[in-house]
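WARN no homologs supplied; continuing
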Amino acid sequence: MKKWCLFLSAYLMLCLLAACGAGAGEPVRGGVTEGSAVSAGPAQSEAEQAATAVITCRVVSCEREESILLAEQDGSGVFTLSLQDLTVTKDGRPWEEPGDRLRDGDLVDIGYSGVILETWPGQLHGAVWADVRSDGRDSLCALYLRVLEDLWETDSGLNDGISMVGVDLSATSLTESEQRAVAWAFASAHEKELVEGTWKELGNQGYIDMELLCWEEGCHFSITEKPIGGTYSLETAAFDAQKWRSGTGAYYFCDCTSLRSAQGEWGEYQVGAHAIS
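OK structure emitted
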């Protein structure tokens, strides 16, 4: 009788262990076993779910239909971003107006994978959405790109036959990343090698011959902002711009001014005087 009781007890223990093992084998997702009731949070789009990081950037240039040039706002990054398969919203809402589009100067939050490809400019890997901030637009980068292009076209013989362009925007209110992005866009548009720095810095680095005061292989472009007096109803920028090839080969836009609208758009600039040397 004792043997039978012991056998029955052992059998019950084995059954209990088997039941526990079966429960442990149930698949688990998100810490909840299948079949359990789970309260759902707010619905997210596929694009929102795919993004694991967000970065805020200034749109420097939208001239290329398939991609845009961006300058990081809380760092020194410069990126190109493909617009293909990118969901674009404004203040978190879908665009509804026929004229809605990304514009130079827009401030955008971009959802991406968190990985930045180490090209130059960099690329935001896995970017799936971009949200435009309606109150963050400032097209100063686009204004200064226009100024550099106008300098290039004016007295074009000064930049004839060059292989490099030097660009100095350190005396402007552009952020470091915006300066780098504008300089890259300008040099890239003319398929020239970019060298950033002041005229003196490029001389110290051996690009400019400081004894003969000339740069045989390149031309140096710079924009310098100036204080402005008086009271204006709109924000005003005042600056000088120049390109320099040698001590006797330079062109200047002097006392330039431009006004910024309440929507963040910098208008056409006026040149106070032209000068050559």
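The two ends are 120 Å apart (CA to CA).
OK
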